[in-house]
Amino acid sequence: MRSVDGMTAEALARAAGRHLDLETAPFTIPRSRLLVFRAGDGVRVHTSEYERSLEECRVLDALVVHDAHGRVLPVADVQPHRISFGAVAAMAPSPASRAEPPLPSQKVSENGTESDRNRDLSGVSLTFDGLRALSMGGDPAASVRITRPDGSVEEHRIGSGLRLDVADDRSVTVAAQPVGAHAAAEEARAAEWADWFERCPRVRADLQDMAAFCWWVLGANIVELPALAGARAVVPSKIGYVGLWQWDAYFIAVGLRHGDPALAREQLELAFRFPRANGQLPDVVHEEGILATSDDLPESDRANLRRAGSRIADPTAPVPLTKPPLAAWALRKVLEVEDAPDWAAAQLESVIRSQDWWFAGPAENGSDLDGDGLPEYGHPYSSGLDDSPVFDGPIPTTAPDLAAYLVQQDREIAALAARYLPGHDPAPHLSRADRTAQLLVERLWDPVEERFIARGAGERIASDTVLGLLPLRVEGLLAEVRSALVAAIGDPARYGLAWGLPTVSAADPDFSAERMWRGPIWVNTSALIAEGLETAGEPERARALREQTVRLVIHGGGPHEYFNPRTGLKAERATTAFGWSAALFLDLAVALSR
Fold first, then answer.
1. Closest CA to 80 of 5, 34, 19, 132
2. In the predicted structure, residue 327 carries a pLDDT above the cut 90
């Protein structure tokens, strides 16, 4: 396939702009806490806050632009740096859009005749002027009508420009701007995006358009966490997911490394920065602190667990909350692109302590809760696959994916320590990895059903899920085990579906095409299992799964949180413009473009 190495930052920004429909992809900019969505012929505005829904974060229910004659000017064009209303062809182009062709004139009927709006209207545009402020400018005779959440309506003439400031309580102040202020804000936003898109990975021509949009997603999802002295977190989504989840940070860093290695390192550093005294890494770092035990959960999460009938909704004692051990994997991948020895050594110390915590017993508040050498998930959230039917049974859960992650992490640590911690003995990690791999097969492999199973509080869990395929990533599996897993991935009755790899076997009674982690396709599990196929000596099948996964994202219209495996489209309740889906699309696209 033809590559697009010469594609300019401006062209990439325009490619991303074609996906900004203000419905599945809102208008926002790096670090801003504002989101703009389409609302009829106008737009609506929300703030972006940790664990709060859009409905709870309403700023303006409607913002509608009118021309000098009172006619509505609908949204005409969206680019990463601005939203344009009305006829935009006559607008003065900004630096990031000078190569754009003019949009067609918009015809309107006036007194029974057609008139060309471009003849007497230069258009109106909206951009951000600060992290919690919007700026509007253009035709001074135009006006904007805003509807607030309390139902009140007011109208303001554009004049020399308007600035809308959003306070912490989401109240909005509207004030006139000095002449040229809006143009300056728009130019600054265009320059900011041009710099971001300059770093966008250049990939195969058939993948570049979606790669540009995915790169936009990562930039748009940057937030500053005030408690962390302005540290930049690339969050899973500005819609509710405003925090740095440990697992998400790993996948996002793996995608970011191809264009911004420093920002990729920053994600890992944040994920590793707040270990508990025993080495456990927290599940989430957010603007109000960290989430490291069940005591830290928001009440909304507890309510969700109760509704789902979870046995862990209200534990009698705090349960540690973390995410699966892919820290060393992410660290290695980020360092492959740009080495940073001193930084790597410091981060590796945190990874080693976290790995040891997984194997510590209950007396040390660790995660080998029965002391048998195979650590357990003490809470569904620690698995990352919160709603998997594996967790319908008793907790704690001995799961094959966790054992596989731990085997590989010990081996990754040994290799990284040899390079970055020369005084660290790798032998204990290697011997522990071999022991864990042995226990994985002895305790969790079912030779009759030819699949890995999970156990909840010692009880067999019958569900056939993607967790049982992830041991394919373990080097040195028995040949018959490896062959059975490869066969399952290709079986059209189980995992070999037309659009990709479901998270529960399509033949399993628990399969649902729409319920989170109970059937939909997720980009992260597909990417990890593609690595497993590579490890199993199946490079062609690994490439085929990667190709299938990027095609799914393109077919589905973007990097959604998860996809319906029957249609290949966004699952109804999935979040759009999702961070790790965007990052892993980029990582897959880079690999497929080599």
1. 19
2. yes
